[in-house]
Prior knowledge:
By secondary structure, the protein is mainly α. It has two domains: about 1-105, Rna Polymerase Sigma Factor, Chain: A (Orthogonal Bundle); about 110-199, Winged helix-like DNA-binding domain superfamily/Winged helix DNA-binding domain (Arc Repressor Mutant, subunit A, Orthogonal Bundle), CATH 1.10.10. It contains nine helices and no strands. Helix 2 packs across helix 4 (about 75-105) and helix 4 (about 75-105) packs across helix 6 (about 125-145). It starts with 6 loop residues before the first helix and ends with a helix.
Amino acid sequence: xxxxxxxxxxxxxxxxxxxxxxxxxxxxxxxxxxxxxxxxxxxxxxxxxxxxxxxxxxxxxxxxxxxxxxxxxxxxxxxxxxxxxxxxxxxxxxxxxxxxxxxxxxxxxxxxxxxxxxxxxxxxxxxxxxxxxxxxxxxxxxxxxxxxxxxxxxxxxxxxxxxxxxxxxxxxxxxxxxxxxxxxxxxxxxxxxxxxxxx
Length: 199
C-alpha cells in the first residue's frame, strides 16, 4: 500500500489531532484519502458483487465513525490505517447483518478455505453464501481476538486491510517472520471455526 503522503506529514497531522488542534482531522483526511479508498476497495472486493455500498460510500461512512474517535491516541500512519481498516470492517459487517435481518434468514455458511474468499470466480461461493461466510468469519475473528489478539490483528491487516506482510509487521511492531507464522496459525484456527459453525 503505497502512501498517498509522506509518513512524516501524516504523523505530524496525527500529532496535531492528538494535541486537539482545531480542524486537524479535516486536514488529515485529504492526506490519507487515497489509501483509505484502497482499503475500502479491498474490503468491498471480499463482498458480494453489486454491493449497495460503493468505495466512496464506505470511505465516507468510515470517516464519520473515525470522527468519533478523534481523541484516540493514533501513534503513527500505520496505527491510523489499522484502525481505519477495522472501522471499515465494522461498517460492512453491520451492513451485512442488517441485510440478513431484512431477508429473515438465508443460507448457512459452509466451510471453505479463507483463500477462496480472496479468489474471484470459480473458487468463490455464491453471493448470498459469500456474505454469510464473511459474517461467520467476523464472528470467529472476534473469538480469536479473545484468545490471541495479535493473530486477530494479523488477519485484520492481511485479509481485511490488504496490508503486505512487511506493512503488517510495521503496524504491529513485530518481525515479518512473526506475521507469517501468526497468519498461518490464524487461518488454520479460523477455518476450523468456520467448519464447526457450519456443522
